[in-house]
Amino acid sequence: MKRIEPLIESENPDVVLVYGDVNSTVAAALVASKLGVRVGHVEAGLRSRDWSMPEEINRVVTDRLSDLLFTPSRDADDNLPAEGVPTERTRG
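Given the sequence above, the corresponding structure tokens read:
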């Protein structure tokens, strides 16, 4: 987070795209969101429903922080509205 914040500040992007469900994904989404930069999450909506997996927590948190949710499958398309995410944020 310490390394990406100055980069986002200096580049001033319109959107920061994050991919997947690793710690760096949620870190970049958090920093961008904090700086008021829109976040796009590639592979949004995927769920295992296994909260013992750190990746599941990363997926859910990243989706909540993201403005644009790029889903890779129909089940991902279904998961987000079931969680209360407005469909206008989803790009399937």
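Residues 23-34 form the longest helix (12 residues). Try to locate this feature in the token string yourself.
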